[in-house]
């Protein structure tokens, strides 16, 4: 089955918006350092994403740290929003 045709500009726009959300989490000093590092690593993964594997990796990293007991509740909500956006983006890659 052939892959879907991807609108590169739309995907890049979506990635930029998601990266901006991730930046807001990494800049929040209330978020523990290990979680900020994981979010930053996920951000790097999606910025260089060429397929859905990189997006899946980012989702996995964020899902893992979203269960951290030290994560402030407002940041947990932000991570869930980011994960949801990444799952939508992953579907676009087919």
Walk me through what this model shows.
There is one protein chain. With 94 residues, this protein is an all-alpha fold. The protein contains four helices and no strands. Helix 1 packs antiparallel against helix 2 (33-47), helix 1 (8-26) packs antiparallel against helix 4 and helix 3 (52-65) runs antiparallel to helix 4.
List the keywords:
4 helices, single chain, 94 residues, 0% strand, mainly alpha
Task: Record the SSE blueprint.
Blueprint: H1 8-26, H2 33-47, H3 52-65, H4 73-93
Q: Please, what is the average pLDDT? A: 90
Largest sheet: none
Structural class: mainly alpha
Query: What is the first-to-last residue Cα distance?
Result: 11 Å
What's the number of extended β-strand segments?
Answer: 0
Write the H/E string, N to C. HHHH
Low-confidence stretches: none
Per the principal axes of the C-alpha atoms, what is the gross shape? elongated
Report the portion of residues in β strands.
under 5%
**Helix proportion range:** over 70%
Radius of gyration, in Å, reads: 13 Å
In DSSP terms (H or I, runs of 4 or more residues), the helix count works out at 4
Please give a quick description of this structure:
The chain is mainly alpha-helical. It has helices spanning 8-26, 33-47, 52-65, 73-93.
């Amino acid at each position: 089955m052939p892959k879907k045709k991807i609108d590169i500009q739309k995907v890049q726009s979506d990635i930029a918006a998601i990266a901006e959300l991730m930046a807001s989490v990494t800049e929040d000093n209330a978020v523990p350092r290990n979680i900020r590092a994981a979010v930053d690593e996920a951000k790097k993964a999606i910025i260089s994403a060429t397929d859905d594997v990189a997006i899946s990796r980012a989702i996995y990293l964020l899902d893992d740290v979203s269960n951290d007991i030290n994560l402030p509740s407002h940041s947990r909500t932000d991570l869930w929003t980011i994960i949801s956006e990444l799952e939508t983006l992953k579907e676009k890659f087919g």
